[in-house]
Amino acid sequence: MMAKNIYLLLDMDGVFYNAEERIPGGDEAIRFLDTQAIPYLFLTNTSSRPRSKLVQKLQRFDIVVPEEKILTPPVAARRWLQENKVGPVALFVPEATRQEFCSLETVSARQPAAAVVIGDMGEAWDFSLLNDAFRLLMQNENSMLIALGMTRFWKAEDGLRLDAGPYVKALEFATGRQAKVFGKPSPEFYHAAISMLHASPENTWMLGDDIINDVGAAQKLGLKAVLTRSGKFVPADLQRGVKPDAVIDSIAGLPELLQGIRG
């Protein structure tokens, strides 16, 4: 009999797909979760596109889920900025992602800002753009540095690419300021996801391809964590001092893994 009270947090990139390439077994895994009535939430550091685009992307891989089943850093950041009435924000995010912040007052890269939001802008990053963010932060000692995740890199069609984390670290180093992170490995991000599932850490499992931000960060909060060998996984990950609770070759192995967990 399937164990009861299991809740799942599922990474997306590197688990269900690599860039635009399907990782086989994802649609079958989601159907299994739905059949078994196992609650799950997609938890992704993707900040380059809004949830509506992520829903469309999953549909191309025969996975149908509503936006409410996806938690992204822009959504979490927007909620926090609204609740805390932070003030005008300067967005360093792709144009498509700006719609997630439409309810906030935003300013250009050269106007005073109460918060500077950094996301994954890919090849749009250059010295001038990064320097604009740096200058905004230095103009106002109270201006907050907001990071939409601290992912180091990801696997694209042409190979590994830098994500937002390295740019945030550069700004932290240059300004001497600590970023407030909305995304993995931030504890607040994980707690928000657990709350959305109405779960608790001890009965929640995280599945991802990042040994640090997915596995290590989840385990520090008391969750169980599964590492998949798909995505950006490299064998050296298993020698980095973080021991996953389970390792599977790909998302296709999730149903068998869950069947082996007994209540």
Q: Care to describe what's here?
A:
With 263 residues, the protein is an alpha/beta fold. The chain folds into two domains: 7-45 and 185-259, Rossmann fold; 73-181, Rossmann fold (3-Layer(aba) Sandwich). Helix content is 31%, strand content 19%. It has helices at residues 26-35, 51-60, 73-83, 127-139, 165-175, 187-196, 211-220, 254-259; strands at 7-10, 17-18, 21-22, 40-43, 70-71, 89-92, 106-107, 115-118, 144-147, 153-156, 159-162, 180-181, 204-208, 224-228, 246-248. The chain has a six-stranded parallel β-sheet.
Outline:
This protein has helices spanning 26-35, 51-60, 73-83, 127-139, 165-175, 187-196, 211-220, 254-259; strands at residues 7-10, 17-18, 21-22, 40-43, 70-71, 89-92, 106-107, 115-118, 144-147, 153-156, 159-162, 180-181, 204-208, 224-228, 246-248.
